[in-house]
Automatic annotation (TrEMBL):
InterPro entries: NAD(P)-bd_dom_sf, SDR_DHRS6-like, SDR_fam
Keywords in alphabetical order: NADP, Oxidoreductase
This protein's name: Uncharacterized protein
Superkingdom of this protein's organism: Eukaryota
Family membership noted in the UniProt record: Belongs to the short-chain dehydrogenases/reductases (SDR) family.
Family matches, as SUPFAM superfamilies: NAD(P)-binding Rossmann-fold domains
Organism listed in the record: Talaromyces rugulosus
Family annotation (Gene3D superfamilies): NAD(P)-binding Rossmann-like Domain (3.40.50.720)
Signal peptide limits: none
GO molecular function: oxidoreductase activity
């Protein structure tokens, strides 16, 4: 009888823990940029699964969301007016509890060959978009706190040959995240950055195979990561499980930066 009672208690505890886990973001509003594909899309789906209302932002959305708690908005992260419109909408509704800046583009040119217009476009999406997003959403978080997760890159920590604009933008995102962490800690707003290695997103899969294979060969785990593996780290950083984490720069890279 004692063994059975103990087993039943353990099972009920498991169910309660599972229920708690699935409800981590009930009643929370999460804004995700770059949500139309890749990491941003997987982040949006994972938050929705755990109960959040997700405002999914992207300049396009090739695959419509079927989930009732994901609301897609066409949005250009480079444009102040798009951010202003979003803030006006959120101010009259639920506000925002979390911001995930995932939008990004690549430029492969080395420094001595990079076109200035391409440099500025990369900076506008990969860095200005992060700044504009935080600048817009932080005031909505000041009264009740919140969490910001910025998707940087291992190339914001270490360098490879070429890709000068991307390297510069992602390194700046890393330090801008730390600035926000220190500046807004008194408002209980946490800001952290994730640095993915090579991840099997549509953007990456379009790259030349030899380029991707060279990256994989230098990754100790010997494979590409999956978008969901980044999304799960985002959810941890955004949740109360990471309540004492701010200003962190976490590599999710299969061991790339451990070498």
């Amino acid at each position: 009888m004692f063994t059975q009672a103990k087993s039943e208690t353990s099972y009920l505890t498991f169910l309660e823990l599972r229920k708690h886990k699935m409800a981590r973001f009930d009643g929370k509003t999460v804004v995700v940029t770059g949500a139309g594909s890749g990491i941003g899309r997987e982040v949006s789906l994972c938050f929705a699964t755990e109960g959040a209302t997700v405002i999914a932002l992207d300049i396009s959305c090739p695959m419509p969301f079927e989930e009732s708690n994901i609301h897609y908005r066409k949005h250009d992260v480079r444009l102040e007016e798009d951010w202003n419109s979003l803030v006006t909408e959120l101010s009259t509704k639920e506000g925002a509890d979390c911001l995930v800046n995932s939008a990004g583009i690549m430029d492969y040119a080395p420094l001595d060959e990079v076109d200035l217009s391409s440099w500025r476009r990369t900076m506008a999406v990969d860095l200005d978009g992060v700044m504009l997003g935080m600048r817009a959403i932080i005031p909505l978080m000041k009264e009740r706190g919140g969490s910001i997760v910025n998707i940087s890159s291992v190339w914001g920590l270490v360098a490879v040959s070429g890709c000068a604009a991307y390297h510069a933008a992602k390194a700046a995102v890393t330090h801008l995240t730390r600035n926000a962490a220190v500046t807004y800690a008194p408002h209980n707003i946490r800001a952290n950055a994730i640095h993915p290695g090579i991840i099997a997103t549509p953007l990456v899969l379009k790259q030349p195979d030899e380029f991707n294979q060279a990256m994989i060969s230098r990754t100790p785990l010997g494979r590409m990561g999956k978008p969901v593996e980044i999304a799960k780290c985002v959810l941890f950083m955004a949740s109360d499980d990471a309540s004492f984490m701010t200003g962190a720069a976490i590599a999710v890279d299969g061991g790339w930066t451990a070498q």
